[in-house]
């Protein structure tokens, strides 16, 4: 059998059930791939080889008896934000040094119950705060995609003996890879890189302002943030509780549907988990979209957006039209206020959630002359710059005298953003099509973004509205830019209508194809 | 609105993050850039709009007031930097 890491989840599932391959074989293939690639890509912060082998062995025993679950024997990577019992769980922060929880998050519990195998924990921006995976205590993740350039090569005229190869000269074009390292996006940069570089069959991720969809778009993978309340937040390190949602990053739309079906559940341990049965998302793939109403919001055409993104959007519109969808122009008038409102609401919630890192209950402790000194020194040493910045903003906007002007105003604007979407859906729009990001992947240590935090925040301009309104959104790869980097489109759906997203994303995927980076690592 | 170094130090104290003079200077610039960015929210007419309290309309789930979990003291202190007999140890807080 050729390289088992190349199989999609649906292909591996068929071969595992058909006893053509074993869970142990595919797990070993991934562990070997991680071993080779991780020094270059830094996607994993902990590899759980022994655990993976034990889980694979147990999967093989169940598969032999024909008792395999929905994900039996499928090797997955888990974002470091998910609590995994006895295993490295540090949200890629120094402040959680050495933390190994005595519990398992609901989402990962669901995955293991369906037979999935854990390969290890994936790198991410510290506490999921970032759009480039550069705020991780464990260093940046490298995007497996690199820019390439088209060269014109002059072909010499050659003769290689009788009947041998003859080249008549002339020119041809060849793509050559640039050496510059690019970011995979964030915060789920480890998840996106691991999926794109074949270091796991699929990965868990989380999305507070775009942390699933932006890295998916930057790596040519599929990422879905489900409706708020669809996946339990229990056991996931909290960032901004009214915005955080877990979801998968996968190599194609079908794999994302398979993973979400297993991740989602109704959980009494999370009071915001919604009492709705989890549908069979895979069944939505392949259903025709004839007559579906697709909204195109004019506010997503922003100043300074590269022409290629606009062209990609137009291509997406044409594909859906060709498939029989009705395209309608729509307006979401409060779109431009989503990002500023987010940068009040999310830091406010984060400053409260991160108060627990005090050097007493877990993780790092830096001694001080009294308890307050100990708190202050521990938090100063334990949190990175971006996390401190957000805690400071959150503390400020919640402090006496400023609460009404900032937090209350932002929560009112948030209601207006949600209302914009409700109005459009009430008018009969089934799904909204937008670009996923305002650019392709950018370079590691980008100077403009390092100098101005707001520039980095603008990465989430198309994705953050969805979190503010609690809606489901999927990023699906739709093409490559002139430099050979992947670009994604985003579909936004009604609450709990993930099925329409999978159905429509599959049409885009069918037209655009799937994308793999050229291997250099 | 913008902040000065004094305010930044006060906020850092509230957030229990030790900052050096240099940190405070740098943070002042960064926080002002972010506060300048969010300023545009003031132009939105929010008259008659309620602040959002729940992103999905749902009733607060309730459960019976009974013990469903417990006897996990050892698990709870397992990750603490300093413990004794299932208590968290902290620097002396009373004289």
From TrEMBL, chain A:
The keyword Transmembrane does not apply. One of its GO terms (biological process) is translation. The active site is at 79 (charge relay system), 187 (charge relay system), 211 (acyl-ester intermediate). Its EC number is 6.3.5.7. Keywords: ATP-binding, Ligase, Nucleotide-binding, Protein biosynthesis, Transferase. One of its GO terms (cellular component) is glutamyl-tRNA(Gln) amidotransferase complex. The keyword Nucleus does not apply. It comes from the Bacteria. It holds the Pfam family Amidase. It is an enzyme of class 6 (ligase). Residues 25-149, 179-501 form the Amidase domain. PROSITE patterns: AMIDASES. One of its GO terms (molecular function) is ATP binding. It catalyses: L-glutamyl-tRNA(Gln) + L-glutamine + ATP + H2O = L-glutaminyl-tRNA(Gln) + L-glutamate + ADP + phosphate + H(+). Belongs to the amidase family. GatA subfamily. Allows the formation of correctly charged Gln-tRNA(Gln) through the transamidation of misacylated Glu-tRNA(Gln) in organisms which lack glutaminyl-tRNA synthetase. The reaction takes place in the presence of glutamine and ATP through an activated gamma-phospho-Glu-tRNA(Gln). Hydrolyzes indole-3-acetamide (IAM) into indole-3-acetic acid (IAA). Heterotrimer of A, B and C subunits. This is Glutamyl-tRNA(Gln) amidotransferase subunit A. The lineage of its organism: Bacteria, Pseudomonadati, Pseudomonadota, Alphaproteobacteria, Hyphomicrobiales.
TrEMBL record, chain B:
The keyword Oxidoreductase does not apply. Gene3D superfamilies: Glu-tRNAGln amidotransferase C subunit, N-terminal domain. It comes from the Bacteria. GO terms for molecular function: asparaginyl-tRNA synthase (glutamine-hydrolyzing) activity; ATP binding; glutaminyl-tRNA synthase (glutamine-hydrolyzing) activity; transferase activity. NCBIfam families: gatC (TIGR00135). HAMAP family: GatC. This is Aspartyl/glutamyl-tRNA(Asn/Gln) amidotransferase subunit C. It comes from Mesorhizobium kowhaii.
């Amino acid at each position: 059998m050729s390289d088992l890491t190349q199989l999609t989840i649906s292909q591996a599932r068929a071969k595992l059930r058909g006893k053509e391959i074993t869970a142990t074989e595919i797990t070993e293939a991934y562990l070997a791939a991680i071993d080779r690639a991780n020094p270059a890509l830094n996607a994993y912060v902990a590899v759980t080889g022994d655990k993976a082998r034990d889980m694979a062995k147990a999967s093989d025993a169940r598969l032999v008896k024909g008792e395999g679950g929905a994900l039996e024997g499928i090797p997955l990577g888990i974002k470091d934000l998910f609590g995994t019992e006895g295993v490295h769980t540090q949200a890629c922060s120094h402040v959680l040094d050495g933390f190994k929880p005595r519990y398992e998050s609901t989402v990962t519990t669901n995955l293991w119950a369906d037979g999935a195998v854990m390969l290890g924990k994936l790198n991410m921006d510290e506490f999921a705060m970032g759009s480039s995976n550069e705020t991780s205590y464990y260093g940046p993740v490298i995007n497996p995609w690199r820019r390439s350039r088209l060269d014109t090569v002059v072909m010499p005229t050659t003769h290689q003996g009788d009947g041998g190869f003859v080249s008549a000269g002339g020119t041809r074009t060849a793509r050559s890879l640039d050496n510059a390292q690019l970011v995979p996006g964030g915060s789920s940069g480890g998840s996106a890189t691991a999926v794109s570089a074949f270091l796991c069959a699929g990965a868990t991720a989380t999305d507070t302002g775009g942390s699933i969809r932006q890295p998916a778009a930057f790596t040519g993978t599929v990422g879905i943030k489900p409706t708020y309340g669809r996946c339990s937040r229990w056991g996931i390190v909290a960032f901004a509780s009214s915005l955080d949602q877990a979801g998968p990053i996968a190599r194609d739309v079908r794999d994302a549907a398979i993973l979400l079906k297993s991740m989602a559940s109704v959980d009494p341990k999370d009071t915001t988990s919604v009492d709705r049965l989890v549908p069979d998302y895979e069944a939505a793939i392949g259903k025709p979209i004839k007559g579906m109403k697709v909204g195109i919001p004019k506010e997503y055409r922003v100043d300074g957006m590269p022409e290629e993104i606009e062209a990609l959007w137009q291509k997406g519109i044409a594909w859906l039209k060709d498939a029989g969808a009705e395209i309608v122009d729509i307006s979401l008038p409060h779109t431009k206020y989503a990002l500023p409102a987010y940068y009040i609401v999310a830091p406010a919630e984060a400053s409260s959630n991160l108060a627990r890192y005090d050097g007493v209950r877990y993780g790092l402790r830096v001694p001080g002359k009294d308890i307050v000194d100990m708190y202050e020194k521990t938090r100063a040493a334990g949190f990175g710059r971006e996390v401190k910045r957000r805690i400071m903003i959150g503390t400020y906007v919640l402090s006496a005298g400023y609460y009404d002007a900032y937090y209350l105003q932002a929560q009112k604007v948030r209601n207006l953003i949600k209302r914009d979407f409700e109005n459009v859906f009430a008018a009969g729009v089934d799904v909204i099509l937008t670009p996923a990001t305002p650019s392709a992947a950018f370079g590691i240590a980008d100077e403009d973004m390092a100098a101005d935090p707001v520039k980095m925040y603008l990465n989430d301009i198309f994705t953050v509205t969805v979190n503010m309104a609690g809606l489901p959104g999927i990023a699906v790869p739709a093409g490559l830019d002139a430099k050979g980097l992947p670009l994604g489109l985003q579909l936004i759906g009604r609450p709990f209508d993930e099925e329409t997203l999978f159905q429509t994303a599959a049409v885009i995927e069918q037209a655009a194809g799937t994308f793999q980076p050229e291997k250099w690592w | 609105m913008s902040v000065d170094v004094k305010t930044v130090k006060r906020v850092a104290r509230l957030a229990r993050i030790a900052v050096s003079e240099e940190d405070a200077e740098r943070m002042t610039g960064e926080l002002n850039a972010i506060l300048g960015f969010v300023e545009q929210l003031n132009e939105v007419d929010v008259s008659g709009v309620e602040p959002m309290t729940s992103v999905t309309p749902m009733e607060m789930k309730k459960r019976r007031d009974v013990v469903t979990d417990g006897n996990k003291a050892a698990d709870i202190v397992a990750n603490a930097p300093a413990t004794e007999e299932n208590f968290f140890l902290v620097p002396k807080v009373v004289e």
